[in-house]
UniProtKB/TrEMBL annotation:
UniProt name for this protein: UbiH/UbiF family hydroxylase
Cofactors demanded by this protein: FAD
A GO molecular function held by the record: FAD binding
Keywords, alphabetical: FAD, Flavoprotein, Monooxygenase, Oxidoreductase
Signal peptide (from-to): none
């Protein structure tokens, strides 16, 4: 450590679930970690559940268990998904069952703040993590080290800088990575409801007129809405009174869960497909939304980011003793290990979004026939479940 610099093995820029999971994973592997992020905001006391909900796969659960975070969660606030029913825009229906796939559950529905506060607690007790509640404002990469300048005036030295700072990543902007972004011209509208009928730990999804509406199970008879709506329609939905929004969801879901009562404000976020031509740069690795952005129709965005974390931690754990964390060989191993998974999920989610956006009777008939065909193939459905579990 120099007079002006603090020295670490890795500096992680960006918090959220992905950045904080990466900090904890690398710290538990014995690395000295600088985390440049803000603590989680307190959850509003006047709403029963977060607006932001994630459907975590088996691979995400396994990572959080390995980090000893899953065990610290309030399991009364978690909801398993045992079944999933997907409805096309005609008569087609797909049913996925954890029992038929011989898995304990298809996913866990978890509030964002629940995981983030558990991560915050674990990080505060980790002697390997130094937390900087500041912003990064300068990155200087040299052959043997990277320097990260903070708004606090401090300068961090690290072998590796990890960009976990979201879709508009500052770290990525400091590299030569080329970004391609396509706006879906849709907004994800999220809100939570109390349902009159029991959801039976079932996740529901409807494709309708190029839009996608999902209801995810929450504890105590609640459900979480994720409505991928055309931007103008989303503005209209967000402007509705709570009872009016509930009525609109009831109509679109054909009253599947009976009368709905809105239990918190609705929020919206823009939807886009974003690809990056490289996940690495000299002494830099990108993870999470800084590395990829996909449509939420399969609920796999967070799972994809957490698999980035697991892979990066595994590559570092297996490194040869003579390599430091920023060694180009290690970074290329990370990038190669992630490319196929990221590419396949991007292709699948973007393809489905495009498929159900094509207007016309013929297109509707073809895609619903395809859904019916998949529904009649147990082995295909089992393969799809296995892929989704990560």
């Amino acid at each position: 450590m120099t007079a002006n610099h603090l020295t670490f093995h890795v500096a992680i820029v960006g918090g959220g679930l992905v950045g904080k999971s990466a900090a904890l994973a690398l710290a538990q592997a014995g690395q000295r970690v600088a985390l440049i992020a803000q603590p989680a905001a307190p959850r509003p006391a006047d709403v029963p559940f977060d607006a932001r909900i994630y459907a975590l796969s088996a691979s995400s659960q396994a990572l959080l268990e390995r980090l000893r975070v899953w065990q610290a969660l309030d399991h009364d606030r978690l909801s398993p998904v045992y079944d999933m029913r997907v409805y096309g825009d005609a008569e087609a229906e797909l049913h996925f069952s954890a029992f038929q796939a011989t898995v304990p559950q298809l996913a866990w529905i978890v509030e964002s703040s629940l995981i983030e506060h558990a991560l915050d607690a674990a990080l505060r007790f980790s002697p390997q993590v130094t937390w900087f509640d500041a912003r990064a404002q300068g990155l200087d990469v040299k052959p043997d080290v990277a320097h990260v300048a903070l708004t606090s005036g401090q300068v961090l030295e690290a072998d590796l800088v990890v960009g976990a700072d979201g879709a508009h990543s500052w770290v990525r902007a400091q590299t030569e990575a080329q970004v391609k972004r396509r706006d879906y011209r849709q907004t994800g509208v999220v809100a939570n409801f109390k349902a009159a009928r029991p959801h039976g730990e079932t996740a529901y999804q409807w494709f309708k007129d190029g839009e996608i509406l999902a209801l995810l199970p929450l504890p105590d008879g609640h459900v979480s809405l994720v409505w991928s709506a055309e931007t103008e329609h989303a503005r209209e939905l967000l402007a509705l009174e709570p009872a009016q929004l509930a009525a609109a969801v009831e109509r679109t879901t054909h009253g599947r869960l009976g009368e709905l009562e809105c239990v918190g404000p609705a929020h919206g976020f823009p939807l886009a497909l974003q690809t990056v031509d490289r996940l690495i740069a000299p002494r830099v690795a990108l993870i999470g939304d800084a590395a990829h952005l996909i449509h939420p129709l399969a609920g796999q965005g967070m799972n994809l980011g957490l698999r980035d974390v697991a892979t990066l931690a595994d590559v570092i754990a297996r490194k040869e003793p003579f390599r430091d964390l920023g060694d180009p060989v290690l970074l290329r191993r990370y990038e190669r290990a992630r490319r196929e998974d990221i590419g396949a999920l991007m292709l699948a989610t973007d393809g489905l979004q495009r498929l159900f956006s094509v207007p016309g009777t013929l297109a509707r008939s073809v895609r619903n026939f395809g859904m019916s065909l998949v529904g009649a193939q147990p082995l295909v459905k089992r393969w799809l479940v296995t892929a989704a579990l990560g």
